[in-house]
Amino acid sequence: MTNRRDVVKGLGAAAVASVAGPSILRAQELTEISMGFGIKSINPIIINILIGEGLGYYKEEGLKFTAKPLGTNSNAQIGVEKGAVQFAVGTMSFQMPLYAKGQLPKIVNFYEYTYPYKWDVAVLPDSPVKSYQDLKGKKVGVSDLGTTDYPVTRAALANIGVDPDKDVKWVAVGAGVTAGVALQRGVIDALAYFDTGFGQIEGANIAFRMLPRPNNVPLIGGLFLSAMEDYIKTHRKICVGFARGVAKGSEFLLANPEAGARVFLKLFPETAPRGASEADAVRSVLLAAKRRVPLYRPPYPDTKMGFIHEKELQLEAKFLGLDIKDVKPLFTNDLIDEINSFDRGKIIDQAKNYKT
Predict the structure, then answer these.
(1) Is residue 215 part of a domain?
(2) I want to staple 104 with a disulfide (CB 3.0 to 4.6 A). Which of 3, 98, 140, 307 is the partner?
(3) Domain residues for 323?
(4) Taking a C-beta distance cutoff of 8 angstroms, is the pair 205, 286 a contact?
(5) Could you read off the pLDDT of 157-170 as tens digits, one per residue?
(6) Greatest CA separation found in the chain?
(7) Does 106 share its domain with 241?
(8) Residues 138 and 186 occupy one common structural domain
(9) For residues 293 and 115, what is the distance between their CA atoms, to the nearest angstrom?
(10) What are the distances in angstroms from CA 185 to CA 122, 180, 182, 188, 223?
(11) CA atoms of 160 and 147, how far apart (whole Å)
C-alpha cells in the first residue's frame, strides 16, 4: 500500500497549490473558511454542507464558507494538514489504515454529517450477476481509486470471502453519469458507488439493478467534518459555527428536500443539466440527493445530530481488517452540545415556507 509520504509527494503539491492562500481572511467582518472534499467538482453529494451559505446560516456564525473539490480524500487531508483549508472530509476507510501505521497527521473528526451505510454495487438489469459473490472474475468500476467507494467495496467483498486483489479487476470510470455510461456500455460488469452518485445516474435515465447487500455489512462508512487537533483547540468557535451551519442545512433538507435543491441551484446554477428547465434541474438534484438526505439523521436512538459513536469506529476498524486498540484519538464529541444549540422548529418552519 502506498504510504503517507508517497501520497504527500505525489499529490500534495497539486492539492495545496489549487487552494493556496491565507487560511483565514477577514472580509466584511466575516471569517473566511473552506473545506476540502474528495470530489472533482461541486455536486449534490455535499448539499447539506453547501446550502448553509445560501441560507445565511454561516453568516449568522460570522463565517463565509467555500467548498474546495480536491479530487481525492488524500488531497483533502493534505490540504487540511498544510493549512490550505481549515476543514476536510473525514473518512475512516482512508484515515484508519494510516492511523494504524502511525502515519495519520493529528486530524480529529468532530461532527458526523452523513451516517452509514451508503454504498452499493449495481449491474445492468439483464446482467447474470445476482450477488456480491458473483463478482468473482468480473470488472468492477469505481469512480476513482482515491475515493471511498473503492476501499469500502473491497472490504465488503473480503468479508464474504471474495479476494479483492485476485478475484476482481478494478476500473476507475469517473463520477456521476460518466460512471453510469461505463456500466451501460459494458466497459465494466458492475459499478460500486454511493447513494447520491446512483441518483445522478438514475437522473440520466440509465437503467441499473442493485445487488442485495451482504448480510454482514455493519453500520460503517460515516462521513465527518475533520480538522487539525490544534485548529479545533484554538478556533473552537469557528468549528462550532461551521458545524452548526451544517446541522441547520441538514434539518432544512430533511424538512423540505425540494427547497434545499432550489437553494443549491441558486448557489451553483452551472450544475444544472445543460438546457434543462428549472423543474428538470430541481428534479436532477433531488434524484442525486434523495438517497443521502435520510442519512443526515443519526440511526441511533436519543442521539444528537453529528454525534460520533465510538462503537461505529470500532466496527469500521474491524471491517477493514485493522488491529486498532483505541479509536478515541480519531474523534471528539466535545462540541456536539454547542453545535446543536439552535431552534430546530425555526429551521423546519423556514424550510416548509421557503419561497424562491
Answers:
(1) no
(2) 98
(3) 4-116+221-352
(4) no
(5) 988 899 999 999 99
(6) 60
(7) yes
(8) yes
(9) 10
(10) 14, 9, 5, 8, 31
(11) 22
Cα–chain center distance at 348: 24
If you search the block for the grid coordinates 428549472, which residue do you land on? 278
User: Terminus-to-terminus CA distance in the chain, angstroms?
Assistant: 49
- The total number of residues shown for the chain amounts to 356
Average pLDDT, the chain: 89
Q: Are strands 190-194 and 139-142 parallel, antiparallel or unpaired?
A: parallel
In tens, the pLDDT along 237-275 reads 999 999 999 999 999 999 999 999 999 999 999 998 888
**Residues β-bridged to residue 193:** 120
Dist. CA 325–CA 131, nearest whole Å: 33
Provide φ and ψ at 276, rounded to 5°.
-75, 145
Report the Cα 236 to chain-centroid distance in Å: 23
Single pTM value for the model: 0.77
As given in the structure block, the three cell numbers for residue 76 are: 483533502
The C-alpha cell at 86 is 481549515
Same domain for 233 and 319? yes
